[in-house]
Structure formats: C-alpha cells, structure tokens
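Throughout our pipeline, every protein is held as a single compact record rather than as scattered files. The remainder of this section carries one protein's record, kept here as part of the documentation.

===
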Amino acid sequence: MINNQSRNNNRYQKPAFKKPQLNISFTEESYVSEAEKVILSLKENNFKHGRDVLTTSQIRNLLSLTSSILNDLVFKEFEQVMDKLSYLRIQFVYQSGRNGAVKDLVETAQILKILENVQAKKDKETLIRFCHYMEALVAYFKYYGGKD
C-alpha cells in the first residue's frame, strides 16, 4: 500500500531540470565551439530554468561589463584591471542568484572557474580570450533563437 502511494505521488512531481555537463577546456582553438555547445545545451531547456528565462538583455548586460574590461586593456596593464575583474565575478554571482536561467549559463559555461583562472594566471591574453568567449556566447544565443 505504501509503495502504491509513493508511486502515485511521484507521477505528479515536476520533471527534473536537465543540467548539462560540458567539458570546457577554454583554449584558443576551442573556446568558440565550446560557446556554441554551451548555448545549444541551454537551448534544450528553451533557455529556461523553472519560471526563469535567459534573455538577451541579461546576457548583454554581463557582456557590457566584460567589454569595458576589454576596452581598459587597450590602455592599461593587467594589474590595473584586477579590481574590475573581481567586480565582474561578483556581478556574475549576483545575477546568477537572481535568475536560475542565468545561473545555468554561468555554470554550464564555467564562467566563474574561467574568471578564477584568469585572475590566477594574470595573463592579458587569457583575459582577452575570456572577453571574446562572452561575445561568442551572446552571438550564439542570438543565433539559436534567444529571446529579448
């Protein structure tokens, strides 16, 4: 009797969110195709997480912070943008906390891990690659039907 009740209750549970697991190597040769894989995996869930939806505005806001760092790198050394890089990490964490779909993007694309690696390496080229990775994520999001 207990088994029948638990089976009946399980029928009415919401379907589990399919959380993609991707191996992101973030090399110069791979980051563009990895960005595409991230977006395609998020598209499987229609860019949604529960009621939260990933929008172009949300992802472009994060890109604009990234772009300002890229612009600063033209005139400044890496050490001079470290504080902005830390602020960028905080913004990714904050936006992830506000919206589950943004969190799915950040986790699937391994953005926080990559940013930690950029800060640890203190390498200008790696930071530039991260900025281009963000641009690729936005471009593929729009290409594969991301909504405003």
